[in-house]
Design goal:
Glutaredoxin; Nuclear Transport Factor 2, Chain: A; 4-stranded antiparallel sheet; 7 helices; alpha+beta
Length: 242
């Protein structure tokens, strides 16, 4: 018996080593074949298994997802759906990859809008020239007991930067913003102040691949792009423990 145990351990180690070697070879084959056959495909960041035997997920550009076979002979672009559990596995994966740790956001570069007791929290990236943002802001008035951290994100043109400066330099940022977005009151004449925050916000958005406005970030790190309804915001605030 004493001799058998070392033999079993050695066999297990050998088997594990063989599996690792096989997985490495498979990974290398996928990378090599796709790089040669589709040179325009960005460098692969990661290859991982999917629930489907023989089909692998490849991740590029940080958060872009494709699927391929074990040899890289085929490339699949689209959503992987779990029909039994009615889950969009691709969407879930992208949501996880694009999550933003809420407590790491530089809140000093945002201003706050507080409603009710302000206990619930939400961060939003918005451009003052964004029509969808105006629609979103008007509907968002229905959501109470929330603190909104508003990151000015001027990406729609030079005028967006000028309007953002006017908001940031206003004596009451929240009032100037809501007057403009909700009530169509002209922005105050831009006064002089440090507006380096706007460049930092643009850089922050690029880092997190915020490509449109509005973009919402909840305390659990999940993000939602687009002018979602107040009801949807409320549901997500409840779902994330707010």
């Amino acid at each position: 018996m004493n001799r058998l145990i070392p033999t079993l351990i050695a066999g297990a180690v050998l088997a594990a080593s063989s599996l690792c070697t096989s997985a490495f070879a498979q990974d290398a084959a996928i990378r090599k074949n796709l790089a040669e056959r589709i040179p325009q495909l960005p460098k692969i960041d990661e290859i991982s298994k999917t629930p489907i035997a023989g089909i692998f997920e490849i991740r590029v550009n940080g958060t872009d997802i494709y699927y391929t076979d074990a040899q890289g002979n085929y490339l699949i672009q689209g959503n992987l759906i779990d029909t039994r559990n009615r889950r969009n596995l691709t969407e879930e994966r992208v949501d996880k990859l694009t999550a933003i740790r809420f407590d790491t956001l530089p809140f000093k570069d945002a201003f706050t809008i507080v409603r009710g007791n302000g206990k619930r929290q939400l961060a939003v990236f918005e451009d003052p020239n964004c029509g969808y943002c105006k629609r979103f802001e008007r509907d968002l008035q229905k959501v109470n007991n929330v603190t909104i951290h508003l990151f000015l994100y001027p990406i729609l043109g030079a005028d967006s930067g000028e309007k953002s400066k006017a908001v940031w330099c206003a004596k009451d940022k929240a009032k100037a913003w809501q007057d403009w977005m909700v009530r169509d009151v002209p922005l105050p004449a831009a006064s002089s102040c440090d507006t380096a925050v706007l460049a930092r916000n643009v850089e922050l958005g690029r880092k997190f691949k915020v490509t449109g406005t509005p973009t919402l970030v909840f305390v659990d790190g999940s993000r939602v792009p687009g002018a979602v309804s107040a009801d949807e915001v409320e549901k997500r605030l409840v779902a994330t423990g707010n």
